[in-house]
Amino acid sequence: MKRLIYLLREAIRGLRANRTNTLIGIITTAFTIASFGMFLLLYHNVRTITGSLQNHIQVIIYLEDAISTQEQANLKHALTQETHIETLTFVSKKQALEEFHEQFPEESYLLDGIGDNPLPASFVATVVPHDHVSDLVSAMVTRVKELSGVEHVRYSRDWVERLTLFTSYLEMGALSIGLILALASMTIISNTVRLAFYARRDEIEILRLIGATGAFIAIPYLIEGAILGAMGGGLSLLFLRGGFEIVKDKIHDLGWVGGLQATIDFFPIHMSGMLVLAGLILGCAGSALSIYGWIKVRT
Amino acid sequence: MIQLFHVTKYYEGCLALSDLTLRVDKGECILITGPSGAGKTTLLKLIFGAEFPDDGQILVQNRNIARLRSTDIPYLRRTMGFVLQDFKLLPHKTVYENVELPLIIRGLSSFDARRKVAESLQSVGMDHKRAVQTSVLSAGEQQRVCIARAIVNSPVILLADEPTGNLDPQLTYEISELFKAIHARGTTVMLATHNRQVVEQINGRMIKLDCGRLLTDQGTLA
Questions:
Q1: Which residues of chain B have a CB within 8 Å of the CB of A18?
Q2: How far is CA B221 from each of CA A41, B2, B29, B197, B201, rounded to the nearest angstrom?
Q3: Contact assessment for residue A124 and residue A60, using Cβ atoms and an 8 Å cutoff
Q4: Separation of alpha carbons B133 and A259, rounded Å
Q5: Domain residues of chain A, as ranges?
Q6: In Å, how far are A48, A242, A248, A264, A266 from A245, measured between CA atoms?
Q7: Closest chain B residue to A208 measured between Cα atoms?
Q8: Cα atoms in the 13 Å half-sphere on the side-chain side of A102
């Protein structure tokens, strides 16, 4: 216990003794983590939006005009057997025409001269939310097309797939940039700890002299790096939150895409915690990098 | 306790110790003398595991120094105390904290540590300055604290490298008396010095080195 208290006190003393370096280290780490955090935040929100859109995929199954009541009942039964269909709504020809007039009042005249209602009856299916919804819907549509009485099946496949692809590119981008920035953070923290190490080399010699192990000497520096990294991570959260609020206000002011402001959100608490944890781990790794090879008892 | 067999040590091609064979028994007091560059410090560093021989073998408490793993060296050092001319105290810490440090490293309980530090500080006459930062102490006081730190672990061997190098005759006398008292308690003492006063004051076996070679190895003086 006494040893643990000593090691913690030494780490804090080290941070306080090199205030300027510590502050520079925290701020630069915060900026680096915040840069990565921006990508992560963008990725998080795009993924949320994509997920939300994917969860609202509608599949419209248009029926043949000549479909009999029996065939329609059989088709409905077949569709209800599909496990990926969450809700199924029948839209009759009459309802379809009414909806058309409601949704496109200006273009209503287009159907005036045609005579009989040209719009087909349909089943509108919503899909059960799933991670690989695009693939599942595609497979289901292939099956449904084969059913008797089905004229045509339509769903917003292209944009769902494109959005999914965009999300995966963003994911790769965030990971690559994250890796580069993580290395940058480690280097910054490593240099800060190395300066502290240089400043205290006499102390290290004394500790060696009185029988301290390499681990005993190294632990305060590892704690120092961890504190520095965690503080950098915490500060980066503040930067990100500030930036996020500004962007959110701008979107509101500009009246961009309806409902977007309501959809975007900041990191949930566990992701915020993970950002601080990432800073802590990077700090520890940076310290380990700087003292690796230094802690030799024989020198 | 300590045995050296034909030990040779070079520093970047320069001979520091040459074919040195020596045996130190438990409870002996050894005074290593000789001019600067004679190899006194090198000899102590070899015993302490801070340096390794280029040739020959060194046994300290039946452990072969050259064969020890680097991770074992700290544990060997915990059985020894080391006193240096330049004290090597932590200036931002108090007298108490400096002396307590070897006990923290060993993982001793606070209760035992308090008792041992108090005993150690009393034995060097520094108990009244336990709360003072070492940076404000005089040279003699700093050397006393250094000795207290070296003996707080009750080492079986105490090594001292020019412990009176920075001290005036009166302080040299006092520090030498401390070493005599520590030796009287059964600790094996090896003290490197070129101070005649120390040699005359401490009744020990004198080993004289010159240019890395053993010139004389006297028995205990009467």
A1: none
A2: 81, 20, 11, 15, 11
A3: yes
A4: 65
A5: 2-52+162-291, 58-155
A6: 18, 5, 5, 11, 9
A7: B74
A8: 6
C-alpha to C-alpha distance for B144 and B132, rounded to whole angstroms: 13
CA–CA distance from B186 to each of A96, B98, B192 (Å)? 107, 24, 19
Tens of pLDDT, residue by residue over A199-253, are: 788 888 899 889 998 889 889 888 988 998 899 999 999 999 999 888 888 877 7
3-class DSSP assignment, residue B222: coil
CA-based nearest residue to B116, from B160, B143, B145, B154? B154
pTM for the whole structure: 0.70
CATH top class, domain A58-155: alpha beta
Size of interface A-B (CB pairs under 8 A): 62
Provide the edge-to-edge strand list for the sheet that holds A122-127. A85-91, A122-127, A58-63, A150-155
Q: Tokens representing A88?
A: 């199924």
From chain A, pick out residues whose CB is under 8 angstroms from the CB of B74.
Answer: 208, 211-214, 216, 297
Tell me the nearest-neighbour CA distance from B169 into chain A, angstroms. 27
Q: Reduce the secondary structure of B57-95 to three states and give it as a string.
A: EEEECCEEHHHCCCCCHHHHHCCEEEEECCCCCCCCCEH
Q: E strand or H helix at A225, and its extent? A: helix A214-254
With a CB cutoff of 8 Å and minimum separation 6, the contacts of A198 are none
pLDDT tens, position by position, B122-177: 988 899 999 999 999 998 899 999 999 999 999 999 999 998 887 888 888 888 99
Q: Name every residue whose Cβ is closer than 8 Å to that of residue A219 and which is 6 or more positions away in sequence.
A: A7, A11
Residue A290 Cα, gap to closest chain B Cα (Å):
20
For residue A59, give the H/E element and its range: strand A58-63
Closest chain B residue by Cα to residue A214: B71
| Token representation of residue A202 | 């006499």
Of the candidates B1, B6, B2, B3, the residue with the CA atom closest to the CA atom of residue B212: B6
Q: What value of ipTM does the predicted structure carry?
A: 0.85
Interface mutation vs chain B, best among A205, A209, A294, A295, most B CBs within 10 Å:
A209
| 3-class secondary-structure state, position A181 | helix
